[in-house]
Task: inverse folding
């Protein structure tokens, strides 16, 4: 490690993940490290260096201005600032007539949100899935990636996120409370996704119709990057607010908030509502004027269009099994892989090309617009070399060291039992009671990325991982593995001894969920290396609040998906499949009676409550004699879950909490009416919650057949069960249909007990079975003509 790295590591904040390269010099599209090694820079400072590094024109403009005047706050006028404002307005899309100058992209977004709120008098902001707008509190609230947002919550209220390129989602989200919609026309950080022209025009129309402003974030796409001076010009779009930064001043920090007529004519953009000490300083303005000269004189937007088209065509002809899709516009290029990109970024760097990632599995190429044709060809040659070498497995060793979200290194095998056991063991160490699942969810996002899956935490807190990008699941028929993250209370020390893993959640929540993720990871790896393609995406979900009566996580999914098949994560043993769950009804009963002497003849509150409970039991017994035929699954099963009482000087109070396990086709409304009548007779108050109807399917469905085949293939004999509890099958089954089962390793009799544990052999056998099931349902072999 050289002295610069030692020195910087000693005194820097530690918030950045740094590559072991010390850059000391640049020129055009090239940079050199401290050892004199040359690199082609396809990071361009995250898009700052559009006009290239170390431009003598910028150095001269800065030097000349520094000798005249460096700083001048906007309480005074300044000649250089005035020239820049006038120049920018001439170049901007029509209608953007006034500008606030600031210092960065996140500042531009912060100011845009403030201007939108004050101009409209509204507070709601609609942003996009995968959007990135900065890391200060307002901008961070509109950024999608949860691992950026969650550590700093609660953030700015009133911000919602919707699917990109999905007009139906926009139509549902934009309302009379919406101040603005903020969107990138090409999502850089979020995976290099390009907005559809029809979608953008319709989105702009929606905003106009409903009185919301349209904020276009061109912090990365502005100043030639996409092949036009501004990406808006590809769409013939006139935004209400345009955010600019990064390359505006040729490398000197600068941002701009460009305001349209709806903002200006609101009459609310008045003196003192916003400000900046450094914004519009003469030094940055001089650099920006010189930058605009270079962009125009060298026709860099046209250059980006031509070179970008060449690069896209060439990348799309690469025949690498690693590549899922190539996307981009101009010289903002994304290569989506079927695996995480970190090893490939390292391999590119070793061969003299610096590139970025955009999410866990997208290589982002963001070269200076002055890159020569020869340099670009060299970049594409190296990309091809690196991605095609995968055929010999030279880049992905059997074991590799990766960086986890906590900054610590974790050594994982590409595919072995130890990793899958370690996954579950780590999950057990993370407490995740209902409504406290966030830490586990974000840990699972990191693990899914390591397995080559797309992953995020949705707006209700569900963890979601998929073999396909988010938008590929919309409108498709995925195979859904629906587990849950939350456990009941009660700490059990996590230990692994003699092949048995102990810990809270080993059986009920985390055992099945870890098996789901491991099996999906195997499928992603299998499809990559064995030339299979997915007929259907595989989506793994860890839902929130399954253990509570709300089942909030599962309910949020019902309308979002229409799966081909679903497996619910519940313990049944590795050779058993559950095809039915009873329904549920919860009841709170409260009764109050005047206090009296215990020797008197009147019933006190406790006696009234016990009489009510006896009525319930008698009713269930009579019903079961007539209808249940000695079957627990067909029986009405009441349970006394809690009883409490208290007394003051004047009244006795008694409370009951009852639960009912309801058989299929049971008339819940009639039961509620009967209970209400008895409560009225007792002059008691009752309330109901957690109502779910029973749900059952059959062993003749395609997913049941897949389990029968998989269990027999692994040497077992399949058993089908009906359970007397409830699960998320009761929530999603009525909407998703009959092709659904529940499956998971573990003995359900240990569920929620202090003895909760799982045998590693059974856990691994369940993963093997799930892998076979998913192969049958989701994969097909690719053929060549």
Result:
């Amino acid at each position: 490690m050289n002295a610069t790295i030692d020195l910087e590591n000693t005194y820097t904040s530690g918030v950045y993940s740094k590559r072991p390269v010390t850059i000391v010099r640049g020129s055009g599209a090239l940079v050199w490290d401290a050892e004199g090694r040359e690199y082609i820079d396809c990071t361009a400072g995250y898009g700052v260096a559009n006009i290239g590094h170390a431009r003598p024109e910028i150095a001269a403009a800065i030097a000349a201005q520094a000798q005249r005047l460096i700083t001048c706050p906007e309480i005074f006028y300044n000649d250089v600032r005035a020239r820049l404002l006038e120049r920018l307005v001439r170049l901007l899309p029509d209608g953007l007539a006034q500008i606030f100058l600031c210092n960065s992209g996140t500042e531009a977004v912060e100011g845009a949100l403030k201007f939108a709120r004050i101009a409209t008098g509204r507070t709601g902001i609609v942003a996009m899935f995968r959007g990135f707008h900065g890391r200060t509190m307002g901008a961070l609230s509109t950024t999608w990636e949860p691992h950026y947002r969650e550590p700093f919550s609660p953030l700015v209220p009133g911000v919602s996120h919707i699917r990109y390129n999905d007009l139906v989602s926009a139509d549902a989200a934009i309302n009379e409370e919406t101040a603005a919609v903020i969107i990138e026309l090409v999502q850089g950080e979020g995976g290099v996704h390009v907005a559809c022209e029809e979608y953008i025009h319709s989105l702009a129309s929606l905003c106009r119709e409903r009185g919301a402003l349209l904020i276009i974030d061109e912090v990365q796409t502005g100043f030639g990057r996409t092949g036009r001076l501004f990406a808006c010009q590809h769409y013939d779009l006139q935004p209400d607010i345009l955010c600019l930064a990064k390359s505006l001043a040729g490398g000197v920090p600068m941002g701009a908030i460009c305001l349209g007529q709806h903002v200006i004519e609101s009459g609310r953009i008045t003196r003192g509502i916003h400000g900046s000490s450094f914004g519009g300083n003469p030094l940055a303005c001089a650099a920006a004027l010189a930058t605009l000269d270079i962009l125009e004189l060298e026709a860099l937007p046209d250059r980006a269009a031509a070179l970008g088209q060449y690069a896209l065509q060439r990348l799309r002809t690469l025949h690498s099994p690693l590549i899922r899709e190539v996307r981009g516009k101009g010289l903002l290029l994304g290569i989506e892989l079927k695996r995480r990109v970190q090893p490939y970024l390292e391999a590119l760097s070793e061969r003299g090309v610096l590139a970025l990632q955009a999410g866990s599995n997208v290589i982002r190429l963001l070269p200076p617009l002055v890159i020569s044709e020869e340099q670009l060809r060299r970049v594409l040659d190296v990309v091809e070399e690196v991605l095609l070498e995968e055929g010999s497995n030279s880049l992905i060793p059997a074991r590799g060291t990766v960086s986890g979200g906590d900054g610590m290194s974790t050594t994982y095998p590409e595919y072995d039992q130890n990793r899958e056991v370690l996954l579950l063991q780590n999950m057990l160490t993370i407490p995740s009671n209902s409504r406290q699942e966030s830490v586990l969810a974000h840990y699972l996002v990191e693990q899914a990325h390591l397995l080559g899956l797309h992953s995020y935490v949705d707006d209700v807190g569900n963890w979601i991982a998929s073999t396909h990008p988010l938008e590929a699941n919309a409108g498709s028929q995925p195979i859904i593995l629906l587990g849950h993250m939350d456990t009941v209370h009660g700490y059990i020390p996590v230990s692994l001894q003699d092949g048995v893993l102990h810990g809270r959640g080993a059986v009920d929540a985390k055992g099945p969920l870890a098996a789901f993720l491991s099996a999906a990871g195997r499928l992603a790896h299998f499809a990559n290396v064995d030339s299979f393609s997915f007929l259907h995406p595989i989506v793994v979900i860890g839902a929130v609040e399954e253990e509570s009566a709300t089942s909030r996580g599962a309910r949020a999914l019902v309308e979002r998906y229409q799966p081909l098949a679903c497996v619910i994560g519940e313990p049944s043993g590795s050779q058993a499949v559950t095809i039915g769950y009873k329904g549920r009804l919860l009841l709170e009963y409260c009764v109050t009676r005047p206090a009296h002497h215990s020797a008197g003849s009147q019933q006190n509150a406790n006696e009234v409550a016990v009489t009510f409970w006896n009525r319930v039991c008698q009713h269930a017994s009579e019903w079961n004699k007539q209808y249940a035929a000695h079957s627990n699954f067909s029986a009405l099963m009441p349970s006394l879950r809690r009883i409490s009482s208290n007394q003051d000087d004047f009244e006795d109070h008694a409370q009951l909490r009852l639960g009912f396990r309801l058989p299929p086709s049971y008339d819940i409304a009639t039961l509620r009416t009967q209970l209400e009548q008895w409560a009225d007779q007792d002059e008691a108050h009752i309330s109901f919650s957690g109502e779910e109807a029973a749900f059952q399917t059959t062993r003749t469905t395609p997913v049941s057949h897949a389990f029968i085949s998989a269990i027999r293939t692994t040497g077992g004999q399949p058993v089908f069960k009906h359970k007397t509890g409830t699960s998320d099958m009761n929530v999603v089954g009525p909407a998703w249909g009959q092709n659904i089962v529940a499956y998971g390793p573990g003995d359900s009799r240990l569920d929620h007990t202090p003895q909760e544990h799982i045998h590693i052999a059974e856990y691994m056998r369940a993963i093997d079975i799930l892998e076979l099931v998913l192969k049958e349902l989701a994969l097909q072999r690719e053929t060549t003509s």
